[in-house]
Amino acid sequence: MAVVNWSGTKISLGISALVGLVGIGYILVKHRKRKRQRIVDTIDELQKVHVHIKDRDRVEQILLKLVEGGKEKLQIVADFDFTLSKFTEKGNRCSSTHNILDSSPVLPVQYREQAVALRDFYFAIEINHEMTLAQKVPYMVEWWTKAHNLLVQCNLRKGMIPEMIQASNAKLRDGCTWMFNQLHKHQVPLLIFSAGLGDIIEEIVQQQSTLHENIKIVSNYMDFNHQGVCVGFKGEMIHVFNKNENAIHNSDYFENLSHRPNVILMGDSIGDLHMADGATTDDVEPCKLNIGFLNTNIEERLETYKGLFDIVLVNDETVDICNSILKRIL
C-alpha cells in the first residue's frame, strides 16, 4: 500500500506497518477520550446513590477551578454540629455540642429537662419548610438566649467539660482526622463556624483528633470566672441563621485570605450557606463548592437542599466526599 508523506513523496507500507499506524491512531483516540472525562464523573464517591447533584455541569466547572487553583488558592469553611460531627452512629442519634450538656448527669435534672424541652420546641421551627427565614430568626434568638441563660444557672465548671464529652456519644465524622492532617500538612486554612459551643468543639477535636494551628473556630464561647464557673457568654450570639452578620465578617479573617478565593463549604443548615460570604471580593471571581448534609425530614427538604447546595449528602456519616475532592487538589 502507498501513502503520501508531507513532502508529497509516495511511501510504500507493508501490512505490519499499516497495522502499527492503526494501533497508534487507536491509542491516540483513546487517550483523547480519557482526557475529556469530566472530574465529576471520575470521582467514585460522587457516583453513590446517597449523593444528590442537581446540576452536574455546574459542579464540574467548580471542580475544574478548584483543581486548577490548587492548594495555594483553597480554604475550607465548615459548620460543626452534624456537619463535622456525626448525626447518627449505628442507628443511634449523636449529641450536638449543646446536647452533650443536655444529657449529662453531671448537671442538674431540672436543667436537662428544661433544655430538652427547649430543643424539642424550637428545633421543629428551625426545620419547618413552610416558614420563611425572617419568621424563624426571632425564635432562634429566643432559643439560644433561653438555653444560654439556663446553662449559666447550673454553675457549670470548665473542668467538667472533658469528662462530659468522654461520657457522651458525640463523634467526629469518619475521615475528619485525615482531612485535618492533610489541611495542616498543606497549610490550607480551616474555619469551623458553629452556632454550638466553642469550648465543647475545641475539646472534642482535641480528644478525637488534633486541633492544628491552621484551624480557627468561631462559635459561642462560655465566659468563666476566676473559679472556673460559667457566668455568661463572650461576644455576639451565633445561631443557625445569622452566620452572615456576626464577628467573623467584621474581622480581617477573610481579608487576610483574599489570595485564597476558592472555597469548599460544608454545612447541614440553609443558614450555613452564608458562612463564607466574606470570602468573596469584587476583583476576584469567586469559586465556592457548597456541600450540604441533609440529616432530617429528608423527603420534605431534599429538593430545597438540591436547589441551594451543589452537592447534597443523605445518610452519610463521613467526610469522604470532601476528602475525595481534596485528593484531586492537594
TrEMBL record:
Q: What is this protein called?
A: 5'-nucleotidase
What gene does this protein come from? LOC106164355
Q: What is the lineage of its organism?
A: Eukaryota, Metazoa, Spiralia, Lophotrochozoa, Brachiopoda
Family assignment from sequence similarity:
Belongs to the pyrimidine 5'-nucleotidase family.
Q: Which GO terms describe its molecular function?
A: 5'-nucleotidase activity; magnesium ion binding; nucleotide binding
- PANTHER family, A to Z: 5'-NUCLEOTIDASE, 7-METHYLGUANOSINE PHOSPHATE-SPECIFIC 5'-NUCLEOTIDASE
Supply the alphabetized keyword list. Cytoplasm, Hydrolase, Magnesium, Membrane, Metal-binding, Nucleotide metabolism, Nucleotide-binding, Transmembrane, Transmembrane helix
Top class in the EC scheme? hydrolase
Query: Where does the source fall among the domains of life?
Result: Eukaryota
- Give the reactions, separated by semicolons, that this protein catalyses: a ribonucleoside 5'-phosphate + H2O = a ribonucleoside + phosphate
- Gene3D superfamilies per UniProt: HAD superfamily/HAD-like, Pyrimidine 5'-nucleotidase (UMPH-1), N-terminal domain
